[in-house]
């Protein structure tokens, strides 16, 4: 097995050019955002103001000191995974419908022949993105799930830990109590809503190498065993070291159906800017759902030239009932370059779902 120079995993991650119209050398500027050669550069989907600056700063500082894009993406993602203030990633995240956490993550390293690794439905491990990297570097597989993923993590010295905080347990309890008016649970007076979402970290280091990591708890209170797009290469994350990188958050099932991150990278290969490529994907999904998708998706992207972009399928309604925009609505993204950390507004191609529409949907 190890005498074969191209493993199945490398073969899958190397199929980047299949179906492409133009070679990577044909990439040109296609929007008002000027191409930049400034390195290093960090882009993240994370909008939670409690963690986003620490995430991008950690990645940028590491690469500024000469570290690799892959090391930076993993370290930055670990910050979100370990921080209980983020209810959508790792420790302190909202559990599944039975009240315990199952986590998903993947990584992709452009400098290592676009190598890949992932874990899904892993329990009791705070930093699933680090286990995904171990799968990439220490096995000839690309994805481990459930008990197998946990055993692999423990084999490499990662301790089992209780990931359910009191705050997350209370959030789960609020959800359980409001499921039905035909049971014996009384609803809370003021049910809360988590802030944030799946984390994507996309990095471009001083050598011009790209990497990415994606990590999530999945849908809040999901069915036990559910796996979305986050650990699926080409859906929740895709990196091509010659072109760019993209990551997705939102309704994962739809992203898998449309190969979201792969689609965005391929459109960049054909000449679109990251912003235009993200918008093209959202338009595609909208068209496939009769222009009325009852869910949201967000794509972030970064190309080899240092350009970046972000687009959401739907906007999000502000507390006063108006259409909210930017990172305050969870639509935007964050960037860190030589000018420091900043939030960027992103774009949305459709208005927010109405309250009546939201009330008719499963919790997402």
Report on the structure:
- By secondary structure, the chain is an alpha+beta fold.
- It has a single domain (41-359), classed as (Glycosyl)asparaginase (Glutamine Phosphoribosylpyrophosphate, subunit 1, domain 1).
- Helix content is 28%, strand content 21%.
- The chain has helices at 8-13, 52-64, 69-82, 128-138, 146-155, 166-177, 252-257, 260-269, 274-288, 355-359; strands at residues 41-44, 103-109, 115-122, 143-145, 199-204, 210-216, 237-240, 244-250, 297-303, 308-314, 316-317, 323-324, 333-337, 340-344, 347-350.
- The strands form three sheets. Strands 4-3-2-6-5-1-13-14 form an eight-stranded mixed sheet. A five-stranded mixed sheet has the order 7-8-9-10-15. Strands 11-12 form a two-stranded antiparallel ribbon.
- β9 (297-303) and β10 form a beta hairpin.
- The longest helix is centred in the last third of the chain and has 15 residues, at 274-288.
- It is globular, with a radius of gyration of 19 Å.
- The N and C termini lie far apart (42 Å).
Sheet of most strands: 8 strands, mixed
Overall shape: it is: globular
CATH topology: Glutamine Phosphoribosylpyrophosphate, subunit 1, domain 1
Distance between the termini: 42 Å
pLDDT averaged residue by residue: 86
The structural class is: alpha+beta
Q: Give me the count of strands.
A: 15
Number of domains: 1
SSE arrangement, N to C: HEHHEEHEHHEEEEHHHEEEEEEEH
Q: Helical content, roughly?
A: 25-40%
CATH architecture: 4-Layer Sandwich
């Amino acid at each position: 097995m190890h005498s074969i120079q191209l493993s199945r995993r490398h073969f899958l991650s190397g199929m980047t050019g299949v179906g492409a119209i133009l070679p990577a050398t044909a990439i040109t500027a296609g929007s008002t955002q000027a191409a930049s050669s400034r390195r290093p550069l960090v882009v993240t989907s994370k909008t939670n103001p409690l963690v986003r600056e620490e995430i991008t700063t950690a990645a940028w500082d590491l690469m500024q000191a000469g570290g690799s894009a892959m090391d930076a993406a993993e370290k930055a993602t670990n910050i979100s995974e370990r921080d209980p203030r983020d209810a959508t990633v790792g420790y302190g995240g909202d559990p599944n419908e039975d009240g315990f956490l199952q986590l998903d993550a993947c990584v992709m390293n452009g400098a290592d022949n676009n190598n890949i690794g992932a874990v899904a439905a892993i329990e009791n491990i705070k930093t699933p993105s680090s286990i995904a990297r171990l799968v990439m570097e220490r096995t000839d597989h690309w994805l481990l799930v459930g008990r197998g993923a946990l055993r692999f993590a423990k084999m490499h010295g990662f301790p089992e830990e209780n990931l359910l905080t009191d705050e997350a347990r209370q959030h789960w309890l609020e959800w359980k109590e409001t499921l039905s008016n035909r049971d014996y649970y009384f609803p809370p007076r003021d049910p809360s809503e988590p802030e944030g979402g799946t984390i994507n970290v996309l990095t471009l280091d001083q050598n011009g190498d790209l990497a990415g990591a994606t990590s999530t708890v999945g849908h809040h209170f999901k069915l036990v065993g559910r796996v979305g797009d986050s650990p699926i290469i080409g859906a929740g994350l895709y990196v091509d070291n010659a072109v760019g990188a993209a990551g997705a958050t939102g309704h994962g099932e739809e992203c898998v159906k449309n190969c979201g991150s792969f689609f965005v990278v391929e459109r960049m290969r054909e000449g679109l800017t990251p912003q235009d490529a993200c918008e093209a994907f959202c338009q595609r999904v909208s068209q496939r759902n009769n222009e009325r998708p009852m869910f949201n998706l967000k794509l972030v992207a970064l190309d080899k030239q240092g350009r970046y972009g972000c687009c959401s399928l739907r906007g999000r309604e502000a507390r006063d009932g108006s259409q909210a925009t930017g990172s305050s609505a969870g639509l935007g993204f964050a960037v860190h370059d030589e000018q420091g950390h900043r939030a960027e507004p992103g774009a949305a191609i459709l208005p927010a779902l109405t309250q009546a529409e939201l009330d008719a949907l499963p919790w997402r």
